[in-house]
Every structure is written in C-alpha cells, then in structure tokens.
Amino acid sequence: MSSLKTRIIISMVFIILLVTIGSYLVIEDIQKGIIEGEFRDKGFFLSNHLARELTEPLLINNLVGIKIYIDNLKNEDSEIEYIFVTDSEGILLVHTFDNGFPKALVERSKPSNVNKEFILNTERGIIHEFDTPLYKEVGYVHLGLSENQVRARIELASRSILFLTISAIFIGTIFSVVIGRRLTDPIQKLTDGANRINQGILNQEIDVDTGDELGELAVTFNKMSANLDQKIKDLVSSKEQTENAEKYLETLFNSIEDGIIVLNVNHEVTKVNESFLKLTGSSEAQVLGKTCHEIIFGSKYQHNSKKCNIDKLLQTKKPVRFEHETIIGDTTKTLDVNGSLFIDSTGTVNVILVIRDVTQQKQLENEIITRNRELTVLNSISRNISETFELDNILVNSLVSLLDLTGMECADAYIQDEVSGDFVPEIHTGDDNGKTIPVNAFKHLINKNDAVVFENSSGMPESITSGYGNGISSFVAFPLSTKEKHLGMITLISRKPRTFTEKDKELFKAIGNQIGVAIESTRFYNNIIYLKEFNEEIIDNVNLGIHVVDKNMKVLAVNDEMVALGRGRITREKMVDNNLYDVFPFLKEKNIDKEYEHVIKTGKLFQSEEKILHFGEEIFTSTSKIPLKDKDGNVEKIITVIKDVTSQKKLEEELKDSYDELKLAYSKLKELFKVKDNFLSNISHELSTPLTSIMGFTELLIDEDITDEQYHKLEIILRNSKRLSRLIKSLLDTTLIDSNNFELQWETLAIYDVVTEAADDFKKRSEIKKVPINIDVPHFLVVDGDRERLLQLFSNILDNAFKFTMTGEINVTGDEDDENIHITISDTGIGIPEDKLELVFDRFYQLEAMGLRKHGGTGLGLWVSRNIVNAHGGKIWAESRNRGSTFHILLPKNKVK
Predict the structure, then answer these.
(1) Confidence of residue 21 (pLDDT cuts 50, 70, 90)
(2) Where are the beta strands (DSSP E) in 221-346?
C-alpha cells in the first residue's frame, strides 16, 4: 500500500487533470457554440437587412444603386465572401464577384434551390450562404460568409484554453506535491481544513500521509472540498453564461431595426427597444407603464374594444399581423405590426409586438398604383386616338378618362378656330351646369404653355369664377398643343378642393400634347379625305381621259372623260376589272402593248400620239403613260392620261394654211418698225438743228435793248423752243432705249448743283405763275452719274410739277443713307389718282386718261425719266393723296457695275 502522501498527490493530480480536461472540453464547446451562433445570427441578420434595403431600389429598377450598396457592404465586412441578387425567376441582376459569376452558383440562383442557409466547400474554405427573399418575393438576396475567420477565432480560443489547462495541471501538480510534503500533522490539517471550509474556503486539499482511517477521512474530506469547489465553479460559470446570453439578447433587442415592445395583459408597456423609441421620438420613461393605445393605436382601438387586435391575440392565442396608420409628431406613418404571445418561467403572459415603419413602402406602392392609373388613362386615350379620326369621339372619351383619373366633376374641351383664332366650346361632359369659360380668359391660360391648376378657390381669377359660377372650388386647364402651335384647351372643374402634384401637371401636359397631335392628325386626315374627294372630282371633270392598270393590264379605275372617249359604246362597268386589250382590241393592232411593256421594263414615262379608228370614227389622241413604282422601284401600276386632240388636229390643219400669211405679215411689220425708227431718228436730228439756232438767236435778242412787249414775246419763243427741244430729245431717247444704246457718261456730281441748274430753267416760269421752287438739298450730297441725264431727269419732273400746279409751291429736298441718295420733288397741284400712280411711268401714257389733256404732253417724259433712273441702278416712284404729288428718286452713291 502506497503512502498517504503519494496517494493524495496522485489523487489530487488525477482529479485536477480530470476537472481541467472536463472544464477545457466544456468551455471549448460553449465558446464554439457562442461563436458559431454569433456567426449564424450575423448571417441571417445581414441577409434580412439586405432584403429590406434592396426592396425599394429593385422595385424602381435602380440596379446601379444596388451594385454600389452591396460593394460597399462587402468592402466594410471582411467575412463577406460574396453577395448577389436575383429576380423572382432566378435571373442574376448584380453581384460582387471580380472575375465573373461562378458556374458553381448558377444552380443556387434558381428560386427552387433557395434555402435559408447552405454550406459550400470551396478552395478558399467553408462558406455559409444565407438566402432571403425580397418583399413579396420580387427577388432574392444571396449572402456568402466565410467560416475562415470564425474557425480562426475558435482555434485561438482553444489554444488559450489549452494553455490555461496545461498551466492549471502544472500548478495543481506542484500544489499537490507541496501539500503532500506539508501533511505532517494530518489532524491539524484536517481541523484547519474544516475551519477553512467553514469559512468558505473550498479550493484546498488536506494532505494526511497515513494509510489509516484518518488518511481515508482526509481523502474523503478533500474530495468533498473538491466537489463543493467544482459545483460552485459550475454555478459561477452558468451564471456568467446566463449573463452573457442576456447581454447578447439585450444587444440584439436594441440593435434590431424593427421597433419591439412587450405588453402585459393590461396592454401596458413593460419593455421597449431603442428602435421603437427612435420610431416614436419618445424616451423610455415616457413609454413604460402606458398602454399601447395611448402611444400608437389611439382611442378607437382601446382595450376591450371589438377592434382591439391585442385582445384578439390574447383570446385566440394565435399570432396577429395588421397595418395601422397613426400620427407621430406631425407626420402620418403606416406601421406593420406583428404580435405574438410569450409566457415566461413564472407563467406570466406577455405580448410581444414587432413594429416596422412601412410608410415609404406604402407611399411607393400608392405611387405605383397612381402611375398605373395614369398609364391606363394614357393608353386608353392613345388607343382611342388610334382607333378613330372622329374628333368628337376622341374628345369625349378623353374627357371621360380624365374625370375618372382626377375625380373632377365636369370637363370641357375647346378648339381654336383656324380662321378667327377664337376658342370655341366643342365638347362638354360631366355635371352639366350650362356654363363655359369666357373666351378672353384663354389668352392668359394659353400663354402659360403648361397646365394651370387652382387647388381651391383662393387666388382663382375672376374670369374663371364668373364663367362657371361661385360653386367652383378647384380648376385645371391645360393646352392641346403640338410643337408648333396651340390647337385648343381642356378644362376640368370640381366643387371640392383637390390636390395636384408636379407629376400631375406633367401628365396633363403629356395628355394635352397627345390630344393636340390627335387633333392635328384628324385635321390632316380630313384634309386628305377632302383632297381625295377633290382630286376625284377634278379627275372626273378634267378634260382628259384617265385609266389605271396593273402590270397584268387589268383596268383598276377610269374617269368620266375616259368613258366619254368610248363614245357611249363602252360603259365604265365594261372597263373596270377587265383586261385593257379585251376592252380595246385595236391597241395590240397598233402595237401599243409594246409601249406598256417598255414602261414596265424601264420605269420611265412614255408619251405618244395615236390615230385610231374607233367604231368607224377617226380619233386623234395624245397619250402619256406614267409608271407608279413600289418601294423596291418596280413598276406596279401605270396611269394612262389620254387627251382627245381630234378637234385640235383639225384646227392645226386649218391654222397651217394661215401660218405663211402671218409670217409674211410679220416680216412686213418688222420693215415698218424699222422705217419708223429711222424716220424718228432723222426727223429728230433735222428738227434739232434749226431749233438750236432759233434758241440761240432768241437769247441774243433778249439781251438787246428791246421793249417789254418784245421781251415777253421773245421769252415765249425761247420757252416753247426749249420745250420743243426736250420733246425732240425724248423722241431720240426713245430710239436709243429701244435699241439698247442708252449709255451714260459717268462722273462724280454734287446733286445740289444739278438740281439748281434744272430749277434755273423754270425760274421765269416760276415768277409768271407765282409758284416758287424751294430747294433744300445739302451741298455735301455727292453721287456718281451722267450730268446731262440727271439734269434731264429733274427737268422732266419739274416740268410736270409746273404743268399741274396752279397755285402753291414746289419743294425739292434731299438726304442720304449709307448707300443711297434720296431726292423728293413735291408739288401742291391737282394730284394723281391712286390707281394711276404706276401708269404715269408707262410709255405714251396719255394725260387725257386722267382728264388732264388740256395741259399737253406726249407721255414720254416720265417714261424716259424712269429709264434714266434704272440705268443709274436706282428707283423712282410717285405718291399722291387727293391733292399734290411727290416723286421719290433713289440713286446709288457709287457707280453701278
């Protein structure tokens, strides 16, 4: 039998070894369970979080936003191996793989293979994939977490525990040896040990190195001490684990995004998480102890009410889910509430409510519903437009659709009259109040070029309220437009206030543009119908025979004149839908079928004249065969235009006989014109020679010492001689102009000098008639021109002014711009009728046509004047208003090339 010391040491070492190894295994298993539990909780939490965050972007198809979000999340968490998102059919939308989507995951992306958790063995280690469906399974989120870091943590914890275990064994062994050595007084040690146990010191061993009952007692004592110590340690360990679990649950309770509250059977709040406090904007003190009705549901859902879902849950003990709309602060929120029962260890019944804010989701759903309604209206209007060209039907159906969409009570459509531009009421639907908007209000509305909305009567123009009456509370008007112009207006009214968004205005504008295009298309269609009927009327009434054949020579259409060419022997019914050669057999005899073959082959117009014998009557025709091609350029139809030229041919034969006579007469007429021109030229020269001598001697005699009577007679001779000289010069100019030999001698002239020189010739005449000439022409006005011709121009116009001015005055003014000089010569004479202003410049225009023949003249002066101005590259025109005339002369400053 071994010594007590040895036995105690061996026993202690063995016990320590067992306890340590057991503790190691238990602690390692607990630690591993905690770490793996945290790993799975994290996976499910992240996948659920992703499903909530990605639902809205996926509904609006914001794949770029989804891509950015999952990339950022992957970069922030090193445990995330991959993330990919599929639609409801398993089609991949976005992923985080750098080298493309792995083939091994293709099958995993199918909805049929979606699991909550799936473990994959890969080259990079074990990956846990967590799959979560999006809202209403519109898609799926697949999140892959690597187990490598978790395994590393477990191994690190195992190594730490192993190190502690080995250290404990080593220390326990030393401790046992030391205790064994010191068991010199076993009883004392037992007593001391009992006292220490009595004092609560349990981690001890009493070393009694004896083989008797005392030794056995010491062993038993030591075992008891060890058992007590182990139990206490187990209790401490269990307490620590419980505290850790409570901390974990508390952290999870407060970190989850959904609000959570715990109620007792009286509906009073006993516990809340941080998310609920954030949702309601309250503190924990403000919430605890109050009922859920005071905080969320309101008075109409109070305890014991039939509508109370909490009572329903307590009665049926089945989970409930419902949506509730409440006002939190100044904001209306929609809450999704999930409720379930929880009975604790004491048997107390509690209600757990998980509350999620789905306001944005509901708003998105409502917006989608609204957009669907708008698209339905647009589709209805588009379908109606595409099905008919009846404007009234289009407008009626469009107004009905608008009333259904907006909930308004009355709608009117106005169309702008193409001639007057006024807006005319076209269609009314809805509550018929018999009133329309005043026409003068449209200008203000149409200029907006956008939808005009009044959500209530405040600020509504009087022009609208006066048209519809004071009962109107909301009003909408938008133009019916195309890109180029406004075509009309639609108005909607209601006796209730309405709310409209900017998107509603955009919708109204889009509908207005759509209906505007429909109006334009309807008008275009009506114009086409009108043109078709008009063309048919023209074709049937044109003095040309027309028929249309296809490439197989089947007659498709004929006009009335074509039937008339048949001389009443071939009706329209016998022509249409029959072969052309069967209807007119003589066409092949005349080889006209070759002409049609040529047109079909070449695709070119073919014109010809034919002489045919039709039922014994000789008919001459002029025919054009016009090809009509398809989109590939192949001839598919031929229009034949036939003109009956029988009468014309007979007339040509009659005219041919008289052509030679006309030709001979024309030749003789040319000779006569030549003789006339030579006569005018010769007689003008012959007259001008003695006339020059007469004017010269008359001027010399005037300068002599003569009586007043002699002076007066000589002045009359000189004045009429000058007049005769101007007449002869005009005749010579007529010959020059007709022969295109009218040339100018160009020089730089001061207009003032030329005008003054021309006026000097009329000085004596001015004094006799007491009609002064006032000249207001600046000295600096300079022009390139022919001095003699410009002098002749101003003399002719001044001569006319003196002829027709009995009293008053003659004014000559001048000014300039950058390129021209403008001279005006005005008188206070009898004037020129407005319808004669252009005729006065015509050649040989006779003044008796104006009732003024008593003033004399040849009608050449103004005609020559216009040719002089034209030769200078200028313009001349006359103005007259009842009395007095003004002649405008516009001359270029520089020589015209």
Answers:
(1) confident
(2) 259-263, 269-272, 320-328, 331-343
Residue 98 CA to its chain's centroid (Å): 38
Domains of the chain by start residue, with CATH: 4-155 (3.30.450.20), 257-357 (3.30.450.20), 365-532 (3.30.450.40), 542-644 (3.30.450.20), 743-892 (3.30.565.10)
- Given a cut of 80, is residue 264 above it in pLDDT? yes
Rounded Cα gap, residues 111 and 696, in angstroms: 125
Task: Kindly tell me if the per-residue pLDDT of 754 is higher than 90.
Answer: yes
Q: Which phi and psi (to 5°) does residue 740 adopt?
A: 60, 30
What are the backbone dihedrals phi and psi of residue 210, each rounded to the nearest 5 degrees, phi first? -135, 160
The b-or-e profile of 139-156 (16+ CB within 10 A means b, else e) is: bbbbbbbbbeebbebbee
CA angle 671, 673, 674 (to 5 degrees): 65
The model's pTM is 0.36
Count of C-beta atoms within a 10 Å radius of residue 205: 26
Q: What letters, b where the CB count within 10 A reaches 16 and e where it falls short, cover 232-251?
A: eeeeeeeeeeeeeeeeeeee
pLDDT in tens, 833-864: 888 888 888 876 654 434 444 444 566 788 88
pLDDT for the residue 298: 67
Q: Rounded distance, CA 141 to CA 82, Å? A: 11
Model confidence at 725: pLDDT above 90: no
Q: Kindly give, in sequence order, each residue whose CB lies less than 8 Å from that of residue 401, ignoring residues fewer than 6 positions away.
A: 377, 380, 381
Cβ atoms of 440 and 549 within 8 Å: the answer is: no
Task: Classify each residue of 252-273 as buried b or exposed e, where b means 16 or more C-beta atoms within 10 Å of its C-beta.
Answer: ebeebbbbbbbbeeebebebbb
pLDDT at 336 > cutoff 80: yes
572 to 66, 544, 583, 622: CA distances (angstroms): 73, 15, 11, 21
The pLDDT tens digits for 577-623 are: 899 888 888 778 778 888 888 888 888 888 887 777 666 667 777 88
Specify the amino acid at residue 623: T
User: How far is residue 428's CA from residue 425's CA, in Å, rounded to a whole number?
Assistant: 8
The C-alpha atoms of residue 685 and residue 728 are separated, in whole angstroms, by 8
Q: Is 60 exceeded by the pLDDT of residue 789?
A: yes
How many other C-beta atoms lie within 10 A of the C-beta of residue 713?
A: 14
Which two structure tokens, joined as six digits, stand for 526?
């009506």
Task: Tell me what pLDDT residue 354 has.
Answer: 87
- Pair 490, 523: CB distance under 8 Å: no
Q: Which tops the pLDDT comparison, 182 or 260?
A: 260
* 319, burial (CB in 10 Å: exposed 0-12, middle 13-18, buried 19+): exposed
Beta pairing class for 117-122 and 125-133: antiparallel
What is the DSSP code (8-state) at residue 192? H
Sign, Cα dihedral of 578, 584, 589, 592: negative
Ordered alpha helix ranges (H), 439-501: 441-446, 462-468
Contact between 758 and 791 under an 8 Å Cβ cutoff? The reply is yes
Amino acid, res. 51: A
Residue with tokens 């959904």: 258
Summarised one tens digit per residue, pLDDT across range 399-440 is 888 888 877 888 888 887 777 777 777 888 877 555 566 555
pLDDT value at residue 1: 44
Cα 526 to Cα 391, 484, 520, 845: the distances in Å are 10, 19, 10, 52
What is the chain's length? 897
Q: Summarize pLDDT for 343-360 with one digit per residue, the tens.
A: 877 888 888 888 888 888
CB 394 within 8 A of CB 522: yes
pLDDT at 536 > cutoff 50: yes
As to burial, measured by CB atoms within 10 angstroms (0-12 exposed, 13-18 middle, 19+ buried), residue 784 is middle
User: Strands, E, within 123-188: which ranges?
Assistant: 125-133, 139-146
Tokens 């000058």 locate to 722
Would you say the C-alpha torsion 567, 569, 573, 576 has a positive or negative sign?
A: negative
